[in-house]
Amino acid sequence: MIEVNELTKRYGSKTAVDHLSFTVRPGQVTGFLGPNGAGKTTTLRMILGLDAPTGGGATVSGVPFRSHPRGLRHVGALLDANQVHGGRSAVAHLSALARSNGIPLRRVDEVLQEVGLADAATRRIGGFSLGMKQRLGIATALLGDPPVLMFDEPVNGMDPEGVLWMRRLFRRLAAEGRTVFLSSHLMSEMENTADRLVVIGRGRLIAAESVQDFAARGTRLSVVVGTQQAAELAAVLTAAGAAVEPEGSAGAEKLAVTGLPADRIAALAFENRILLNELTTRTASLEEAFMELTADSVEYLAGQPR
Amino acid sequence: MTTLTSVPQAASAAPVAEPPARFRDLLASEWIKMRSLRSTRWTLVFIALFVVGSSAVASLADLDNLAKSGSDAPRVREFLCFDACPAAGYMTLMLVAGSIGAVTVVSEYSSGLIRTTSVAVPARHSVVLAKAVVVAAVWTVVGAIISTGAFLVSQAILSERHAGVSITHPGVARAMVASTLVAPVCALVGLGLGALIRHTAASMVATLFTLLMLPTLFSQSRQWSADINHMMVVSAWKRLVQSWEEIPGSSLIRDATVSGSWAVYALWPLIAVALAVVVVRHRDV
């Protein structure tokens, strides 16, 4: 369990993280979402005690992380896959970390096997691809078999097979009862992996809820109806209490209906002898919900005068 | 919190019995880090060969002088044991030890590895201390090999003219110890500056400036200036390997004392490492 309470970090006049509070529970994959520059990495660094907060605090399993003299058995973290020394082999890198925490060295072989780097164990990390470095970072996080795991943008540089593997791994770690906290700026990634979401923008909390709830509160559920008798249908639906808007280009004879479910629309059309040639329920994608909610808090908008 | 009934709680996710945090685990970890870098190994071999080689060159040159001047071995003996401690060789050693000492810390910052390390060991001042111990140990061994090698080579060459001295000769043992320890002293000064500065080029320049250039700014011609000069590591080394005593009254400027020079050896690394520990504990990484 990770608890963040009124966490604040200011760099001079710039506030990177602003009175942020949320809880990440065990047994679930929790996504940590926000546009670039929203303060995700800064938050993770403060949870890990790398940066001291300007205000507020964070605890992992009830205590500040820095109160542990050794950390790997408490939290496994992958912050940036490039935070390794290119001159060492994967096995030397992991051995040094394992040894510092009194973890038996056979665990190094186990985690290398687990992430699929057993064949590259003695190669210099400098020659690894980003995907391989991500795997090494995950191996580092798993080294101490910790109850809490944190990953910052772990799928960067992974091939499709690797992404799939990683998703399964995160699901499995959560199913084992661990706390899995996963940051990303890609909503689509979370849609397939996370149970819950913590969404931030400009250092402030935007949402902390289940993935379904988050998607539902974005664009409202709408139904697209195609018919030759658009004007007629619009009148009927409006009378039934729906909001109707023409959809697509003029003359396409499509309506976007909100406020009535598809089966109700079909029944009304049938009663009024209106022939429908399309009836599609459109659920807001997570991506849309995300864009909509974070639109006001995007730090770096393309094409905007600065 | 309610227990999870739908999800089987794996034993591994429960709080683990953790072995006590032991400092020697950190030493072992830092030792793995040091020995797993090929570049460090090669640098150590190179500098050892260089210092021993420069001692051989100095000895050969003196052998040549002795031959020309018609060997008066006993009178020059005091000066000739200086051939085992050639300034060019040892100043290069100081330069290399200081730089490598700085790199041990700075490379973690420049690569970002320090964050990975700090998550593994949140008590990060202990990491700095462990690094200092490993660096000091490695450089003491390297320094001992170098000073022994340089002494044996120079005496083997000089003994051809019966100008060699034994280790029991007055001042020789002290010179050997001082030449052994100058490497770890400089490496620790570099390590401390590296931890303070964290930037590769800047900490390198700062280390070299502090160890080798700073002493030249304080001349021996005035007492206050000489006093500052005597506080420098390189001056302390020069004083400790000098086996002859200044003739009393030959100069108005007091010479550095032997005990003062040993104090210089102790204080520089102590202050550098202490500052590093304090700063690393309080600063964001």
UniProtKB/TrEMBL annotation, chain A:
Similarity comment: family membership: Belongs to the ABC transporter superfamily.
MF terms in GO: ATP binding; ATP hydrolysis activity
Keywords from the named record: ATP-binding, Nucleotide-binding, Transport
Family annotation (PROSITE patterns): ABC_TRANSPORTER_1, ABC_TRANSPORTER_2
Protein name: ABC-2 type transport system ATP-binding protein
Tagged with keyword Glycoprotein: no
One Pfam family, short name: ABC_tran
Residue ranges constituting the ABC transporter domain according to the UniProt record: 2-227
PANTHER family xref list: ABC TRANSPORTER, ATP-BINDING PROTEIN
Entry-linked InterPro entries: AAA+_ATPase, ABC_transporter-like_ATP-bd, ABC_transporter-like_CS, P-loop_NTPase
Automatic annotation (TrEMBL), chain B:
UniProt KW keywords: Membrane, Transmembrane, Transmembrane helix
Superkingdom of the source species: Bacteria
Transmembrane among keywords: yes
Membrane-spanning ranges: 42-61, 87-107, 128-152, 172-193, 200-218, 262-280
Protein name (record): ABC-type transport system involved in multi-copper enzyme maturation, permease component
Organism: Streptomyces netropsis (Streptoverticillium netropsis)
Signal peptide span: none
